[in-house]
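Sequence only, no structure available. Ideas?
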Amino acid sequence: MDEILVKDYSRQNSMATSTTDDQESWLAPDSWAVQLPPDGNGWAGQDDPVDFDDYRIDDQDGPKQTANIKIYRADQTYNTLNVSVHATAYDILKKLAAKFFLSNTVKFNLVLRKYNQERKLGLYEKPLQIQKVLQDQMGYTDQDSIEDISYIVRFYLVPNVTHPAPEEKPFEHQVDISGRSFSIIPIYLFKYASQITVLDVSKNLHMDIPLDFLQICSNLTRFILANNDYSVLPPSLTSIHWLEHLDISGNKLDNLVPLSTLILLQSLKAINNLLFTIPSEFAQFQCLSSLAISNNSFTKFPMVVCEITSLTYLDISFNKITEFPHELGQLCNLKSLFAIANRITGILPDCFTQLTQLEELDVRQNLITDLDILSHLPKLERLLVDFNSISIVHCKIQALRTLKMYKNHITLFDFTSSDPHCLTELNLSNCKLSTLPDDLFTHTLGLERLSLDCNTLSRLPISIGYLSNLMRMSIQSNHLESIPSEIGQLGQLRTLEAQKNNLKWIPEEIWLCESLSTLNCSSNLLETFPEPPPSLLLPKSDHQHKTSPESPVPNYNNSNSNNNNNNNNNIHPPKYLVNPRNHSHKLRNLFLGDNLLTDDIWSPLSLFLDLRVLNLSFNYLYEIPAHGLCHEHLYELYLSGNQLTSLPADDIERLQYLRVLVVNGNKLQTLPAEIGKLRKLLVLDVGNNVLKYNIANWPYDWNWNWNLGLKYLNLSGNKRLEIQRKTQDYTNNNHQDRDLSDFSALTRLRMLGLMDITILGVSIPEEYQDRRVRTTPSEVNGMSYGIADWLGSSDHLSTWDLVMPRYRSNQEESLFGLFDGLARTKTGCLLSKRLNDLLVSQFTRELNATKSDDTIVSAMRRVFLGMEQSIAMDPTVPKEAGAAALVCYIAGHRMYVANVGDVQAVISRNNGQVFEITQKHIPLNPSEVSRVRAAGGFVSKAGKLNDALSVSRCFGQLEHVPSINCNPFVSTIDLAENDEFVILATKGLWDRMSYQTAVDIARTEKQDLMTAASKLRDFAISYGATENIMVMVIGVGDKFDKRTKRNRNMGRSNADEEALVVKSKRRGKEEMPGDSTLARLEREVLPPVNELALVFTDIKSSTQFWETQPDNMRSAIKIHDAIMRRTLRSVGGYEVKTEGDAFMVCFKNITAALLWCFTVQLQLLEADWPAGILDTDEGREIEKDNVVIYKGLSVRMGIHWGTPVFERNPITQRMDYFGPVVNKASRISSVADGGQICVSSDVIAALRNFPSMFDDEDSPPEDDDISTSTTLVSSPTYSSEGSFPVSRDLLQLKKLGFHVVELGERRLKGLETPECLSLVYSKQLMARIELDKCDMIHSPIPTAVPSSSLISPQIGPTDVIQENFAILERKVVPKTARTIDPNIVCALSNLAIRLERLTSGHTLSQHTAGSSIQSQYTFADPDIISTAPSGIGLMLDRHLREDATDEELVLMMENCVARVENATSSLYLQKLGAFTTVLEKLGEASQLDPNHIIRALQMYANS
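Reply:
I predicted one. Tokens follow.
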């Protein structure tokens, strides 16, 4: 009894009984759970209301609000009460007592049940407030009429009777009673308490831990109280001072004061709480070796931690810590430090040099800029710095084994190590590396995994050959033109991923990589695959002779020839090269999609006899020769997007192990019957061909009834194929007939595609959760439409699509949906199917109920929440299932898109520019981290929500609600004529390609979106996708196609007919650019001749950048060039030549030239520039009115319209241009400053030929204006050679909007006559005008000089910085005493302006008028009476009156006098020019006898 009788102990949360105050108190043991009798107020217990962090107690005065609440009984029946929203549990119990005549309410409790957890509510807790907070966290708003959220939380009325938990299996030293909804420790554990060493009581909400129980747990060393919803720790914890390991994660603790006595703790996990400080008493915890306090509320590093010198593991991730303190160096025993997703900026402090025992450092997702200090850590083995701001790496880390620097701004990587064999893994993906040091890999000889993806590398160092241990190398998405031959020395290399480069050949030394099993070179420029070189086919006796290898470290001071000789001495060809026809290479997976391969590829491929996967999609294959498919062990064969007209029957029959055959997008008219003999075939995709054959002719043509194991069959897109009911005798033994058009025999079928196929009298299989059948046409409400999917590695269906044309019986409405199941089950994803079935009815109900003050955006949100409620209450849907979703609703010319999860959509507009219209909901998204934390969840080091889910929003996953919810991101898009199509796709596609790549691929087939969708899917497979994929492409641009539906269909059918005749619609090899990305874009337009627009561009301060930041500039120039060339293709321009960073381009139409300049200037602002460029004054980001107007490299542009001399260059065979027009265009570009577009008067005159060009920017151009405008252009608006319609340019220019600022006449260097120049700005960059005006006013006007030597025939880089247009940080000239009256100068200036306007014949505009010109002389609004209130004239007058010096006034007077003289001379010629001859004769006569003229005039006057 002495163990459980406790004196002088008081508890905060337990009920107690006491004797009179003058006697000694006796407290009952906690395990007795004694409750006090009701006091005078009716209840005992807590004296004051308790505020809980999961909701707010609102006691403010105001009108009484009521709401309904359901109170359930144990038998699941319920009663609905209408109570105040501030009603407590005590109030509800009293109301229930009155309603049900309960005599003693003390015997009942309210219990909150959430998912599979429950807890007893305190008397002062407010159930409706708890419910309200959950509703807010799930996405409901106050305007929503919420019927019920009992699928998330329920309140039960239960008797206040404690039932002892049944004793479970025989006692073990480790006890786990987590997730049992126990309110107190089970009684049966008391008799084993002294033997318990590990006790897990997690997920028992508000569980009481009796003091008397813990006192007898004398051997307890590990105690886990995670996810118990504690706001305050149980006070009894202070009694187990011998505890060694404690886990209190997932609670709501804001302090750890009760743990101050547990000085023997060795590890403490307090993840996902509300901690913002740590008690100073923790400095006594000298046994503590592991401390995890991630996902808390720390804004500063807790200083007391630095005093716990025994720490070896410290995790402070997902806080808001801004810096490491210098005292951190005191942790001399620290081995692992995690500081993920904080706000640490700048360089790491010097104190890191004292962390000599540190082995692992993870500082991902911060703003760290330098790692040099880590060179002093002798034991650092693992370093993760992904998602930081590091630009230059120049360090030497001795023992480093793993280095990951994904997504940084690295432009220079120079890594060395005292032990070159130490580093085994290096990841430099998604940085800005344009080059690597030649000797880099000599310092990393032990590398086993190397990733250099998504950089701008054009070559690999030849030292790559010394990585003899390298097993996996990924170099995809670079600019590599070749792979060094030294790759043949990588004998351990197993995987090489080199897709999305510019490779033109693969070195023959690839055959020496005898361990290579996977090679991916898709999306390159390969024309063939190398055969084994004859020089390596050595006799057996030769290669058996072994020589001692040389030292692997090369000497780069030697010549290349010496290096090559050394390499050849070390080459030992593998055994199969002795006789390659008898010995096959170990290569198993070969991906060569999207290249320039021809039928010659089959010969070298025949040497790979053990191939399992062969992908040759999107090449130039016309025929598979006999024995071309000699790979008898082949599992998967991909031949999509070629020009095949037949498949070799004999070769197909030998592929008995074949499981996947994909040949869509070819010219197949029939399929060989031998496919039916492939008994293991699971996937067959023959969509988008020209199949037309008798399916009943089974002895010669294929029929699906002979491949009963098929799980995926796609015939969609074969518009000539007819499937009608036919029977055929298929045996020789009887006359039993079989319906060969029936699909019912394919019992294992998961997906059947029959879109655009004629089906007559055929029974279509029924759909269910694990089978999808598509029979709809590829057009929805006049919009073309395409879809493609893929099962991936799963054998079951997990993704569902929905297409609803004529939604709500309205031709202008359509509904699309895409649902991707997260949990892969053996029976398919039932949740995806249920969501697919619910969408139409739920959405229709919400739209019909939408009121005038409501919006469709709110309706879509309620639809998602309503579907969540429906599937949560469906007992057939597994509660642990989850699904991402995307819904697209099109009504007229407006589109609404809503999504949750990682299913995303993009739209292509403006000739291939991509715009994201959804949001990716992943836990690492900063905004999602905040929401998840507020809802009680956390993000793990692996980037998963609650360490379980890779998405932060989805349907289902009720266990994690409200941390995860289905509140969608909704976007509204007003469709316009420049919109092309929308791509909706699952994570499987977006993980393999960027948004822009997807748009580029789809645009190659924009006339047939069924083919486009399949092509996107097949490209993802070529890039290595193995998971499920679904792609939907919707041609929203068809809504603006003025052709009738019939004409569009005729055009498409004609294209299908032409496909049978024309061998290939792809460009020939001689037309292929040297860049695989550009190869997917439109062909370059033919060089324009005669009258055209010339554009010269140049980068401001490029010489300074090259001299000060060569590494950053190398990366920046590639970004610059990519933007220029991509936009040039999309707009339709011709690249004449480049030199350095200067471009000379030309356009057939002036509108295209202007559109290209605007688009480039806008995209330069969106580019991801190297951090070094952005840190400079010339490249820093400048905002005005929250709009970025300058960022990164600034490009000056000049446009001129004229007729130059043209001639093809005999060497490059490209068109070149010469003459005065070219010279003038070059000089015009030199006038502009960085970010400016300067145009000549000829450009302005050409633009005025378009009637709507200078109309109100907000009004769209009329069709008549466009048609009239196109007739004013000398070229046709459409051309088969790749030119673009002027009407398209006009629409985009009107949508962009632009403004013209006149500069006046400028004398250009080398040109005799002055040129009237102007600056043009797009509407989005109008803020640049004000900056430019200020600088023009404060600077003299010098003679323009050429900005570059970009004059045909030679070009050169230039960097002339114009003082007269300097934009940034110009100081105002101080005021000084003046002797000249500025008002006289202003009057003279305005007189010159008036005379010049009279001379030009243009009405004087108020914008250019000065303040001293009266309004009656200006063309302005008749309501305006005062002088010019704004404009450049007023600004000039203001400058002259207030700031101009005497020197400036003199210069201005001289300038004005010259202008007045020129104007008067021009007026004289205009007015009297026609009488010049007469006046000359009169002058001659007056010289002879002036009296004759006088008499003549007198006679004329008298008459």
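The chain has 29 helices and 60 strands.
Hope that gets you unstuck.
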